[in-house]
Amino acid sequence: MLTLALVLAGLAAAIHVYIFFLESVAWTRPATRAAFGTTEEEAAATRGMAYNQGFYNLFLAIVTAAGIVAFARDADTVGAALVAAGCGSMAAAALVLVASDRKYVSAALKQGTLPALALVALAIAML
Predict the structure, then answer these.
(1) What is the structure's pLDDT at 120?
(2) In the structure, what pLDDT confidence band is assigned to residue 119 with cuts at 50, 70 and 90?
(3) Are 53 and 64 in contact (CB under 8 A)?
(4) Structural domain of residue 23, as residue ranges?
(5) Which of 9, 25, 15 shows the shortest CA–CA distance to 63?
(6) pLDDT of residue 54
(7) What is the number of other CB atoms lying within 10 angstroms of the CB of residue 26?
(8) Helix H or strand E encompassing 126
(9) Which of 60, 75, 78, 103 shows the greatest Cβ crowding within 10 Å of its Cβ?
(10) How many CA atoms lie within 13 A of 78 on its CB side?
């Protein structure tokens, strides 16, 4: 079960690295604007906010990856804490996204499902 938890956590981290790229690097590109449903003007006006938000996503991915590395180095307590912190924050952020506007349910499911499943698998593995 631990292997499943770490694979799910790794996939969740990878998705959040991709979200970092979209928000902090490619925010004003046409394909990114289409994915987020923003106009050129909206993307230009929110570029700084998106840049900052992208780094939050990157930091969550880094915390999660550090937890996976800790597990690989037999530091299970540290690994569990870091994976739980990273994935828990990812899942919580997805809930906040849905709470802010129900039109974001699809995006929240994309960013929140894997970390939530990783948390469940981690909890079972650590019993």
Answers:
(1) 98
(2) very high
(3) no
(4) 2-126
(5) 9
(6) 98
(7) 16
(8) helix 105-126
(9) 60
(10) 12
Question: pTM (2 decimals)?
Answer: 0.95
- Residue 52's region, left for phi above 0, alpha for psi from -120 to 50, else beta, is alpha
Region 47-53: what's the mean pLDDT?
98
Mapped to the 3 state alphabet, what secondary structure does 59-112 carry? HHHHHHHHHHHHHHCCCHHHHHHHHHHHHHHHHHHHHHHHHHCHHHHHHHHHHH
**How many domains does the chain contain in total?**
1
Q: What pLDDT was estimated at residue 40?
A: 97
pLDDT band at 57 (very low <50, low <70, confident <90, very high): very high
- What is the residue-averaged pLDDT of the chain? 97
**Measured distance CA(68)–CA(122) in Å, rounded:** 11
Whole-number Å distance between alpha carbons of 121 and 118: 5
Maximum distance among all Cα pairs of the chain, rounded to whole angstroms: 51
